[in-house]
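C-alpha cells as discussed.
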C-alpha cells in the first residue's frame, strides 16, 4: 500500500485548522480570566501581597477614612496641576475638603524629593489607625518622553498637565508615626495598603 503525501491544499487546510485551534484556545483563556474578576484590570484575591487588603474587607472606620482620603487626594492633585505645588493640609481644610477638616485627626504634609505624603493620626488615642497617602512624582521629563500614553488606573493618576503620578493608600493599626519623615516604603514598617481591586458582580 503506497502512502501519498498530502496535497498542497490539504496541507493548507491542516495549517489553518491548527491556527484556528490556537486562536480559539487563546480566547478561551482570556475569557476565563476576565470572567474571574471582571474587566477593570484590578487584582484578584490571589494577587494580593501580605501587606495588602481589599477595600471591601477593611473595617468601616478604615473604609470611611480611605474614601475621604481618596477624594481629598483628588482635590490635592487638582491644586498641584494648577499651581505646580502640593497644597498644605491647612489649605485643604480651609476649603472644607475631608478628611483634613476632621478635628479629631491630625494631618500633615511631608515631602522629600519625588515623594509626597499626606499622613493622618488620630487624637482619640494610640489604638486608632493612622492613614497615609503616598504619592511619587516622576523624574523630570519621564512622562513626556518615555510613557506619554500610559493609562491611568488605581495606582497611577494622570494630572491635567500630563504628569503621571504613582499613588497608593495605606493605614497602620497604631496611630504613632514620625512627624518629619517621608514613609517611602510603608510595607516595611507595618503599614497595610488598601486596594479597590476587581469588584464582585
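Sequence:
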Amino acid at each position: 500500500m503506497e502512502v501519498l503525501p498530502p496535497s498542497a491544499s490539504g496541507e493548507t487546510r491542516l495549517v489553518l485548522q491548527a491556527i484556528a485551534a490556537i486562536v480559539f484556545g487563546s480566547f478561551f483563556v482570556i475569557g476565563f480570566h476576565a470572567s474571574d474578576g471582571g474587566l477593570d484590570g484590578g487584582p484578584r484575591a490571589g494577587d494580593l501581597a501580605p501587606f495588602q487588603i481589599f477595600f471591601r474587607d477593611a473595617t468601616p472606620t478604615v473604609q470611611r477614612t480611605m474614601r475621604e482620603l481618596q477624594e481629598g487626594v483628588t482635590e490635592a492633585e487638582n491644586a498641584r496641576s494648577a499651581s505646580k505645588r502640593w497644597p498644605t493640609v491647612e489649605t485643604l481644610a480651609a476649603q472644607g475638603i475631608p478628611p483634613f477638616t476632621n478635628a479629631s485627626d491630625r494631618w500633615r504634609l511631608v515631602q522629600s524629593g519625588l515623594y509626597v505624603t499626606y499622613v493622618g493620626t488620630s487624637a482619640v488615642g494610640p489604638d486608632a489607625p493612622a492613614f497615609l497617602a503616598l504619592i511619587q512624582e516622576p523624574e523630570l521629563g519621564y512622562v513626556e518622553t518615555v510613557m506619554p500614553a500610559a493609562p491611568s488606573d488605581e495606582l497611577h493618576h494622570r494630572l491635567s498637565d500630563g504628569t503621571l503620578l504613582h499613588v497608593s493608600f495605606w493605614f497602620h493599626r497604631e496611630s504613632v508615626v514620625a512627624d518629619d519623615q517621608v514613609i517611602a516604603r510603608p510595607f516595611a514598617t507595618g503599614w497595610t495598603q488598601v486596594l479597590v481591586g476587581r469588584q464582585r458582580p
